[in-house]
Design a protein that fits this description.
The protein contains two helices and 15 strands. By secondary structure, it is mainly beta. A 15-stranded mixed sheet has the order 8-7-6-5-4-3-2-1-15-14-13-12-11-10-9. The longest helix is centred in the first third of the chain and has 7 residues. The protein is globular, with a radius of gyration of 17 Å.
Length: 246
């Protein structure tokens, strides 16, 4: 939660093992044209490590334009779990998929907290509102090519995934106020079953210094995110419904 956000970078830095360490042959980061379309909706069931249902999630993608008329994508992710609601909205340039603005909000009962992040080149300006309604501001230096961590699982869909593919992505975590380098490695091909049906998928390992997550991405356009084992939250997301947009 936000009131503990200052402690998170320390936890990341003191992680004992480099989970992202790999011998893969990493290539340069290059995205294909975004495979999603305006109005796309992906819905998921959330499961804990015991396989029990603990909530639902959705990802909605819409096209738009910024104040200067530049094309942008708006990605909205909502998680509902046992009385908790987390909502994140990220605006990113349509061509580079780099973020311009993100908002993360968490609410439970009558408590709420929020982080608003404005991206500008090599800096991120954070506006944090605690559950006590105390507002603070912080400016953090970031790599100019950093993407917002809340979009990472979706951005994998725009990569040229193939057997042996590997690349690295700098991601900024607003909740932690820190940057991590994610290693994205295609581990193989699998046919997986989800509540939405059976799919041929790429199994993609997504490792950082502190986490080891796995994504299953459909092999057919628009390459939906079928399943995601999120090591950061110990939650697995399984696709229940997919609306491709127009």
């Amino acid at each position: 939660m936000l009131r503990n956000w200052i402690l998170i970078p320390l936890i990341i830095l003191l992680s004992g093992l480099a989970a992202g360490c790999s011998s893969a042959n990493f290539g340069p980061l290059k995205f294909n044209a975004a495979p999603w379309h305006n109005g796309e909706v992906s819905e998921y069931i959330m499961r804990n490590n015991a396989g029990e249902s603990i909530g639902t999630a959705s990802i909605r993608i819409a096209s738009g334009a910024d104040a200067n008329g530049n094309a942008i994508w708006n990605l909205q992710r909502e998680l509902l779990s046992q009385g908790d609601q987390q909502l994140s909205v990220v605006e990113m340039h349509a061509d580079t998929l780099r973020p311009t603005l993100s908002i993360w909000a968490h609410s439970r009962d009558n408590d709420s907290e929020m982080i608003k992040t404005a991206y500008n080149g090599t800096q991120a300006d954070l506006e944090l509102t605690s559950v006590q309604s105390v507002m603070t501001n912080q400016r953090i230096s970031i790599p100019s090519d950093a993407r917002d961590e809340q979009t990472l699982a979706t951005l994998i869909r725009a990569l040229p995934l193939a057997s042996g593919y590997a690349t690295r992505i700098n991601v900024f975590l607003p909740l932690a106020g820190a940057t991590e380098r994610a290693e994205v490695v295609v581990a193989g091909e699998e046919q997986i079953e989800t509540p939405a049906g059976a799919f041929d998928a790429w199994r993609v390992n997504v490792n950082t210094e502190s986490t080891a997550s796995v994504a299953w991405v459909g092999k057919e356009a628009p390459y939906p995110l079928l399943k995601f084992q999120d090591d950061r939250s110990d939650v697995t997301f399984e696709l229940t419904n997919f609306q491709p947009g127009e």
